[in-house]
C-alpha cells in the first residue's frame, strides 16, 4: 500500500520523461499523458478508499522513518483533493489536445507542452501528499517552474509583461516560504509536519504567532488572498484557455490546502481566528466587487476566483471540524467548477473572437449548446440548489452559524458574496447570450494562442468540458457520502492525532 | 480546417553533425589559439573529473548534480573555444538531441527510484555492493548511484540545451537579422 502513495508523484515524472523521448510522435505523447493521468486518478481513488477505511496511508521514502526521512501521507483530505485534482487535470489535458488538433492539425508535436504539463501534475500531487515542510516547498517549486513555462509559451510582448508579474510574485513568495522554513527549522530543529505539531506548541507565544503569520502570508500569496491577490487577475487571463483553467482550478487551491494543513496541524488555534475571518471577508467582498467592474470575461472569472478563495478561508477561520470539513468540500467543488468555467470561456472566445463581454451578444441563438454549458457551471458557482455549489456553501454556512457570533456575521458576508457572484454571472449571461447578435471578430494575432478568432472547436474540447460539468453534477448527486468524508476529514484535521500517529507511529 | 502553419518542428531540432573543434575557420581574428589548445587538453580531463564527482558523491561532496554541471562546463568551454564561425556552427552540433539526454536521465532516475518496490523494499531504498579491486582497494557501489547517473545525464542535457538555445540559437538569430538588413 505504501508504494501506492508514491505513484501519484512518480508516475507523472515517468510520463514526462517518456513524452520528452517521444517528442517526435504527437500521438504517443498524447497517449502517455492521458494514460498516466488516468492511472494516477485510479491510484488516488484507491488511496481515498484506503484512507477512509483504515486511516492515513504513509510511505517512508527509502525506508527512513519520520522525522528523519521524508514521508508521503495520504489521509482523507489529501487523497480526496488528489483525486479531484487529477480528474480535472485529465479533462484539461484532453481539452488542450483538442485545441491543439483544431488549431494545428493532428500531426504536430510539441517538445515542451506534455512534459511540462505532467511535471505540473507531479508538483500538485507532491504538495497534497508530502508530510514535510521542505518537500512542500519543493512541490511548490516544481509546480511554479512548470507554470512559468506554460504561462509564457507561444507568447507576445504584452503577455510577457503579465507573465513577468506572475513570475516575480511567485519567486517572492517562494523566497518568503524558504525563509519561513529556515526560521521554523532554527526554532524547532525539524521540518516534518507531524513532528512540528508537537514541537511548535512548546515555542514561546510570540514566536509561534510570527511563524504562523509568515505561513499565512506565504500561502496567502499563492492562494490569492486579498490584499495579496493583485497578481492573479493580471496574469491568469493572459494564458491560453486550458492553461488558465488548470491554474485557476488547481494552483490557488493548493495554496489553500497548504494553509489548511499548516494552520490546523502545526499552528492550531482554540477558537475562530479573527485575522483569518477579516481576511476572508475582505477576499470575498473585494473579489466579488472587482468582478462586477470587469469587461474581459476571463478577468471577471479571475476576480470571482479570488472571491471564492475567501469562502475557503472562512471555513478555515471558523476553526472547528465543521468549518474545516466545509472548506474541504468547497475546495472539491470549486476546483471542478472554476476549471469548467475557464474551459467554457475558451469555447466562447473561439466563437466570438474576443474576450470583451461588450463585443459579444446573442450567442444563445448561434450556439445553444454553449449557452447550456455556460449556464450550468455559472449557477453552480453561484450556489443555486441543487448544484454542488449549494451543497458546499451550505456546509460552510452551517459551520458559520454554529461557530459563534463573529462567524455568524461573516456567514452573512458569504451569502452577500454568493449573491454578488450570481449577479455577475447573470450579467454575463444576459450580455453574452441574449441581446442582438453580434458578428464574430477576426483573429487579431495568428501567432498568439490567447484569442484565436473564429477557429473551430474540435470534439475533444466539448467532450472535456461536458465531462467536467458531469463531474460537478456528480459531486452534487454524491453530496451525502462526499460530505460524510469531508466532515470526517475536518474532524481528523482538528483532532490532529490520526495524522501524527500515522506518521510518527 | 486550420488557418495556421504547422509548427516547423524539424527545422530547429534536427541534429546537425558532430561535436568538433574548427578544422578550418575562415575568420582568423575570431580564433584564440591559447583557448583552443587549452580546450583540447581540458575537455577530456574535465569530463573524467565529472565522472569522479558522480561516483564519490555518495560519501563525499559531489553527486549527479555537481558532476553533471562540471561535465556541462566542459561543453561550455568547448563552445567558447570553438565558438561560431561562418558556416560552421560548432555550438549547435550534436549527435544526440539534448532533450533525449534529459528524457533518458529522468527515465533512469524515476525507474531506479521505483525499482526497489519490485523487490518488496520501500520506494527509493538503496542496496550496497562492495568490490575488492586490486591497487584501488575496496569500492562500494550503491544502487542509488543510478539515480545520480540519471541526474547527471539530465543536467548535461539541460546545459547543452541552454548552449543551443541561448548560445548558438541567439547567434543564429542575430545573423539572420543582420542578413535580412543586408538583403533586398
From TrEMBL, chain A:
The keyword Transmembrane helix applies. It holds the Pfam family Proton_antipo_M. GO terms for molecular function: NADH dehydrogenase (ubiquinone) activity. It is a multi-pass membrane protein. GO terms for biological process: ATP synthesis coupled electron transport. The keyword Membrane applies. It is found in: Cell membrane; Membrane. Residues 131-414 form the NADH:quinone oxidoreductase/Mrp antiporter transmembrane domain. The chain crosses the membrane at residues 32-50, 80-97, 109-128, 134-151, 163-187, 207-232, 239-260, 272-293, 300-319, 331-349, 370-392, 404-426, 462-485. GO terms for cellular component: plasma membrane. Keywords: Cell membrane, Membrane, Transmembrane, Transmembrane helix. InterPro entries: CPA3_Na-H_Antiporter_D (IPR050586), NADH_UbQ_OxRdtase (IPR003918), ND/Mrp_TM (IPR001750). NCBIfam families: PRK12665.1 (NF009308). PANTHER family: NA(+)_H(+) ANTIPORTER SUBUNIT D1, NADH DEHYDROGENASE. Belongs to the CPA3 antiporters (TC 2.A.63) subunit D family. This is Na+/H+ antiporter subunit D. The lineage of its organism: Bacteria, Bacillati, Actinomycetota, Actinomycetes, Pseudonocardiales.
Automatic annotation (TrEMBL), chain B:
Residues 34-160 form the Na+/H+ antiporter MnhB subunit-related protein domain. The chain crosses the membrane at residues 37-57, 63-81, 101-121, 141-163. It holds the Pfam family MnhB. Keywords: Cell membrane, Membrane, Transmembrane, Transmembrane helix. InterPro entries: CPA3_antiporter_subunitB, MnhB. It is a multi-pass membrane protein. The keyword Cell membrane applies. Coiled coil: none annotated. Its main location: membrane. It comes from the Bacteria. GO terms for cellular component: plasma membrane. It is found in: Cell membrane. Belongs to the CPA3 antiporters (TC 2.A.63) subunit B family. PANTHER family: NA(+)/H(+) ANTIPORTER SUBUNIT B, NA(+)_H(+) ANTIPORTER SUBUNIT B. This is Na+/H+ antiporter MnhB subunit-related protein domain-containing protein. It comes from Pseudonocardia halophobica.
Amino acid at each position: 500500500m505504501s508504494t501506492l502513495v508514491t505513484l501519484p508523484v512518480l508516475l507523472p515524472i515517468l510520463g514526462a520523461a517518456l513524452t520528452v523521448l517521444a517528442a517526435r510522435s504527437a500521438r504517443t505523447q498524447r497517449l502517455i499523458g492521458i494514460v498516466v493521468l488516468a492511472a494516477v486518478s485510479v491510484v488516488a481513488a484507491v488511496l481515498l478508499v484506503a484512507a477512509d477505511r483504515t486511516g492515513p496511508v504513509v510511505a517512508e521514502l527509502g525506508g527512513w522513518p519520520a522525522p528523519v526521512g521524508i514521508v508521503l501521507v495520504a489521509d482523507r483530505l489529501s487523497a480526496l483533493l488528489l483525486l479531484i485534482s487529477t480528474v480535472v487535470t485529465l479533462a484539461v489535458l484532453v481539452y488542450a489536445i483538442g485545441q491543439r488538433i483544431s488549431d494545428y492539425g493532428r500531426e504536430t508535436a510539441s517538445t515542451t507542452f506534455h512534459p511540462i504539463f505532467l511535471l505540473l501534475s507531479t508538483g500538485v500531487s507532491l504538495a497534497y501528499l508530502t508530510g514535510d515542510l521542505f518537500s512542500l516547498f519543493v512541490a511548490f517549486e516544481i509546480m511554479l517552474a512548470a507554470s512559468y513555462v506554460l504561462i509564457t509559451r507561444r507568447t507576445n510582448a504584452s503577455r510577457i509583461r503579465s507573465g513577468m508579474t506572475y513570475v516575480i510574485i511567485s519567486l517572492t513568495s517562494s523566497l518568503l516560504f524558504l525563509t519561513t522554513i529556515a526560521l521554523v527549522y532554527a526554532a524547532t530543529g525539524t521540518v516534518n509536519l507531524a513532528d512540528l505539531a508537537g514541537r511548535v506548541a512548546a515555542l514561546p507565544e510570540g514566536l509561534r504567532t510570527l511563524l504562523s503569520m509568515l505561513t499565512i502570508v506565504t500561502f496567502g500569496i499563492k492562494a490569492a488572498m486579498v490584499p495579496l491577490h493583485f497578481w492573479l487577475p493580471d496574469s491568469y487571463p493572459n494564458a491560453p484557455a486550458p492553461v488558465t483553467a488548470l491554474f485557476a482550478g488547481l494552483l490557488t487551491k493548493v495554496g489553500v490546502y497548504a494553509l489548511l494543513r499548516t494552520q490546523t496541524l502545526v499552528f492550531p488555534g482554540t477558537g475562530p481566528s479573527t485575522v483569518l475571518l477579516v481576511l476572508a471577508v475582505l477576499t470575498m467582498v473585494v473579489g466579488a466587487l472587482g468582478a462586477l467592474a470587469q469587461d474581459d470575461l476571463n478577468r471577471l472569472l479571475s476576480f470571482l476566483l479570488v472571491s471564492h478563495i475567501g469562502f475557503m478561508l472562512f471555513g478555515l477561520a471558523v476553526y472547528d471540524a465543521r468549518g474545516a470539513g466545509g472548506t474541504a468540500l468547497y475546495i472539491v467543488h470549486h476546483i471542478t467548477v472554476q476549471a469548467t468555467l475557464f474551459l467554457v470561456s475558451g469555447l466562447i472566445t473561439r466563437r466570438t473572437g474576443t474576450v470583451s463581454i461588450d463585443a459579444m451578444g446573442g450567442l444563445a441563438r448561434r450556439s445553444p449548446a454553449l449557452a447550456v454549458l455556460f449556464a450550468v457551471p455559472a449557477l453552480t458557482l453561484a450556489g443555486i440548489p441543487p448544484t454542488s455549489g449549494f451543497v458546499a456553501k451550505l456546509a460552510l454556512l452551517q459551520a458559520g452559524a454554529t461557530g459563534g457570533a463573529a462567524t455568524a456575521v461573516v456567514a452573512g458576508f458569504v451569502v452577500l458574496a454568493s449573491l454578488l457572484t450570481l449577479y455577475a454571472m447573470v450579467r454575463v449571461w444576459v450580455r453574452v447570450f441574449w441581446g442582438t447578435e453580434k458578428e464574430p471578430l477576426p483573429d487579431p494575432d495568428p501567432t498568439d494562442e490567447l484569442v484565436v478568432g473564429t477557429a473551430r472547436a474540435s470534439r475533444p474540447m466539448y467532450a472535456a468540458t461536458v465531462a467536467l460539468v458531469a463531474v460537478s453534477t456528480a459531486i452534487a448527486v454524491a453530496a451525502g457520502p462526499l460530505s460524510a468524508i469531508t466532515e470526517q476529514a475536518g474532524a481528523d484535521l482538528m483532532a490532529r492525532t490520526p495524522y501524527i500517529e500515522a506518521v510518527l507511529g | 480546417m486550420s488557418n495556421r502553419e504547422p509548427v516547423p518542428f524539424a527545422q530547429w531540432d534536427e541534429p546537425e553533425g558532430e561535436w568538433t573543434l574548427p578544422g578550418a575557420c575562415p575568420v582568423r581574428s575570431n580564433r584564440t589559439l591559447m583557448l583552443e589548445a587549452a580546450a583540447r587538453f581540458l575537455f577530456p580531463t574535465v569530463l573524467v573529473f565529472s565522472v569522479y564527482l558522480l561516483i564519490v558523491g555518495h560519501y563525499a561532496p559531489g553527486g549527479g548534480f555537481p558532476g553533471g554541471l562540471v561535465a556541462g562546463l566542459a561543453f561550455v568551454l568547448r563552445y567558447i573555444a570553438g565558438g561560431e564561425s561562418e558556416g560552421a556552427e560548432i555550438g549547435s552540433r550534436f549527435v544526440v538531441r539534448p532533450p533525449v539526454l534529459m528524457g533518458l536521465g529522468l527515465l533512469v532516475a524515476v525507474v531506479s527510484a521505483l525499482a526497489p518496490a519490485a523487490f518488496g523494499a520501500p520506494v527509493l531504498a538503496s542496496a550496497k555492493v562492495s568490490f575488492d579491486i586490486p591497487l584501488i582497494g575496496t569500492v562500494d557501489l550503491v544502487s542509488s548511484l543510478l539515480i545520480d547517473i540519471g541526474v547527471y545525464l539530465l543536467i548535461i542535457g539541460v546545459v547543452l540545451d541552454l548552449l543551443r538555445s541561448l548560445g548558438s540559437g541567439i547567434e543564429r538569430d542575430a545573423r539572420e537579422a543582420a542578413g535580412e538588413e543586408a538583403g533586398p
